Amino acid sequence: MPGTLPAFLHDYEEPLVVSTSQIMDGNIPTIAGVYGGKRARDQIPKVDHKKIKKICCIGAGYVGGPTCSVIANKNPDVAVTIVDLSVRRIEAWQSDDLPIHEPNLLEVVQSARDDREGRPANLFFSTDIDKAIREADCIFVSVNTPTKSLGRGKGRASELSYFESAIRRIADVATNDKIIVEKSTVPVRTAENMREILMANCNPGVKFEILSNPEFLAEGTAIKNLLQPDRILIGSLSTQAGIRAAASLVDIYAAWVPREKIITTSLWSSELAKLAANCLLAQRISSINALSAICESTGANVAEVSKACGLDSRIGPKMLSASVGFGGSCLKKDILSLSYIAESLHLPEVAAYWRSINDINEYQKDRFARRIVACLHHSLEKKKIAIFGFAFKKDTGDVRESAAISIVHDLITEGADIGIYDPQAPEESIWFELEAACDNPDLVRSRVKIHNTPYEACDGAHAIVIVTEWDEFGNKTPVASKKATVTPPATPRTESATSLPSKLLEAKETVAKATGTRVEWERVAGVMKKPMYVFDGRNMIEPQNLEDLGFKVEGIGMAGRGRKIVVDLDS
Ligand SMILES: NC(=O)c1ccc[n+]([C@@H]2O[C@H](COP(=O)([O-])OP(=O)(O)OC[C@H]3O[C@@H](n4cnc5c(N)ncnc54)[C@H](O)[C@@H]3O)[C@@H](O)[C@H]2O)c1
Predict the structure, then answer these.
(1) Which of 83, 85, 143 has most ligand 1 atoms within 8 Å of its beta carbon, as the pocket-test mutant?
(2) 2-56, pLDDT tens digit by residue?
(3) How many Cβ atoms sit within 10 Å of the Cβ of residue 564?
(4) Atom 34, ligand 1: which residue's CA is nearest?
(5) How many CB atoms lie within 10 A of CB 350?
(6) Which fold has domain 49-257?
(7) Sheet strands (E) in 271-350
(8) Residue 406 Cβ < 6 Å to ligand 1
(9) Burial class of residue 107 in the structure, from the number of CB atoms within 10 Å of its CB (0-12 exposed, 13-18 middle, 19+ buried)
(10) Quick one: fold of 322-478+518-555?
């Protein structure tokens, strides 16, 4: 049922520099502007603000962990404590077997955490949430905000219970003023609701300032994105306290991010901009995927279409690769959230527009599974299919909302046996996702096997389905380097002690933990049943090479070799 969003939060102090009318007009200067513009950005800021000395980050997940590790790495004089409810997760962060796979993350963590090479440790991981809250002057809230699974808005709205519980804990525990940073992706106007909770529950005399500082990193390239962000977005109220808090947070990022890339806006623009960015990215993927369906029926090649369109400077080449569909914990849920917000604002056409992006994504996954079944003569009984990659994208072990989940589910339903190989996705996460997606977990356990090498997964298989674009599956170019070598900082308090070696940013390709090399396709051909199919859900295979080995290759957005193209405009 549609609801309404709460009334505009009235500023509770006099604006210092930025007037409310400027915010309403969208004419909001950046902090650099407030300090006197770009040319003066190296001058000492005129806004009197506190220096943040201790940061607490609530939530040690894919965002909280890497983000606050980089903050600690770049601000050696700031103590950063990352806390979580999960003892297991925190123990993993304290070890060298980190709970998430992300290129170069370990080096970043070690350099700030391990008190080595004369640099005192300033990065800590803990389950003592209350202590970390009490001691911090700035608290990042970086907990999960999944889609609601219960009650009003079920399956569409954001579940804010984890976020709210973190906020309530801050209110209960804090005995001095805090800056609270919304790092999680939240619906627009969440800060207003959280402020109400804080005001109603705080200890006497304690003041809170809420900032929105959404995270734009992409899994698989998190460290690169954090070290060289396109922008840092900080939203605040336009009050004195709001501007001061924003200035304090600007200082933290200014330790390594050029000032002109740190932009400040109103709280509401910042909250909405994060949702908007994810929805726009997903919209490009669904647009090219929708075009891929037309390509497959007409003989056009989606790679050529994408290149031709991407060379138009108004369009640009990024996020225009056709694929089996997007996955991950963010895009689908953020589209659902934005669409639900539009519905709540009585904007049904807007809601339907954004929802259609998810609809195309589901259609793309379903279409791909149907194509596999059709090519394998409409029956998968007594056939084995190897799944190459289960993570939602390369260079991460994250399998949340991976396209592999629905594809495996569809293939099992058709009677197939499945062999899965992924170099990083943890086995227990694969089982968790597959069993959650299927009414019959016993069927999943009886049909699916998870293997340590691609060759075991392919043994006796009729087809391979490439779901994740891990470099090791490709056959286009040779692997450039095995792994980035990282030189530990040589001396304390120098550039090299606090900044990461540029080599961290140079590693372009990753290779398997299990094999350390590219897949040997000749060897694969030797263990498979004939005819052998490769369904390339990422268009990463150069088909001719594999066809020379006897494979039939089916890509996305290109008609399969030897398949008849029928265009019947009247039907
Ligand atoms: N994953 C991404 O690529 C990405 C990118 C940008 C933004 N985001 C957003 O960032 C937020 C976090 O995402 P994530 O992928 O890091 O989630 P995650 O599930 O990996 O991590 C969240 C962590 O928060 C902990 N947690 C939950 N409630 C807690 C509480 N009350 N106290 C202490 N710990 C608590 C959980 O135990 C978990 O470890 C989400 O809002 C997400 O939409 C994610």
Answers:
(1) 143
(2) 333 333 333 333 333 443 333 333 343 444 433 333 333 333 346 889 999 999 9
(3) 6
(4) 84
(5) 15
(6) Rossmann fold (3.40.50)
(7) none
(8) no
(9) buried
(10) Rossmann fold (3.40.50)
